[in-house]
Design brief:
alpha/beta; 3 helices
């Protein structure tokens, strides 16, 4: 092989590596679009808790049915918005929630786990469940550790029972639960964005660090049960303020690989010449 062909072969190999879709290498966060601003998004409505209410740090809205109840006493934290009509922002968020749901389905089943989540410690990856209806029992703990993206593809329902805890060093904003039917979250602490085909119910005293996106199917509401004093939020960001960091990193990686390929080829030249 000539020196020119060595250069060309290596450069093309690194170019192919750099341009390969990211999800060919590992699971990736779904595109969130307008939903990234939301803490609670419904299809047929959003019902806040009574009493002291739930504090939602993120936009709250519902599309196409814009019924919003118990706001107040439930509240939306500054600088986010309560959408009382089916405005363009909520419509787009609903469309983007469906796209996120579809994206998560497309990332496959990954590692299949037992449906009982009690005591499990997991690192990033794509997960599904033997029976498709994972359950975190009362007072049980699920630990999610490390960097990267966690995707849980739930075929049917998701349940986190009273006093259960989802904890760990993972970034809650990189945890995604795609739920084929409905989710019931009664635990003290739950991490991640829940994208449900049907409804999501947040129990009395339950707290979610993430987002609740319900009704990507034909119907579905977000219902906050109990008398309040709990929270939803921690991941919502105004759409215009979110940097496209993954794309920047991918571009830098592609450039770096090309440079590496070029200089690797140049270092091979003297060896080829000697031979």
């Amino acid at each position: 092989m000539t020196r020119t062909r060595v250069d060309l072969t290596l450069c093309l190999a690194f170019l192919a590596l750099a341009c390969m879709p990211l999800d060919a290498w590992a699971q990736v966060a779904p595109p969130l679009g307008a939903t990234q601003a939301f803490g609670a998004l419904g299809h047929s409505g959003v019902t806040g808790a009574t009493g002291s209410g739930v504090v939602v740090t993120g936009d709250v809205g519902s599309s196409p049915t814009s019924t919003i109840s118990n706001f107040p006493p439930s509240t939306v934290g500054v600088p986010f918005s309560l959408h009382t009509s089916n405005d363009a922002v909520v419509q787009q968020a609903h469309t983007d929630a469906i796209a996120a749901y579809t994206n998560l389905v497309g990332q496959g089943t990954g590692t299949v786990l037992a449906d009982n989540l009690s005591g499990q410690t997991l690192t990033s990856g794509v997960y599904s469940f033997t029976l498709g209806a994972p359950d975190l029992p009362s007072s049980a703990t699920l630990t999610l550790n490390g960097g990267g993206v966690f995707i849980f593809n739930v075929a049917s329902s998701l349940t986190a029972n009273v006093n259960s805890v989802v904890t760990g060093t993972a970034d809650p904003c990189n945890i995604f639960w795609r739920v084929g039917s409905s989710a019931t979250l009664n635990g003290t602490s739950f991490l991640g964005t829940v994208v449900a085909d049907q409804s999501i119910t947040l129990g009395s005293g339950a707290n979610v660090t993430g987002r609740l996106l319900a009704g990507t199917g034909a119907t579905g509401a977000v219902t906050m049960a109990g008398s309040g004093g709990n929270t939803i939020g921690g991941c919502s960001t105004a759409v215009g303020n979110v940097p496209a960091l993954p794309h920047v990193l991918l571009a830098v990686l592609a450039f770096g690989l090309l440079v590496l390929g070029y200089f690797s080829a140049r270092r091979v030249r003297p060896l080829v010449a000697r031979r």
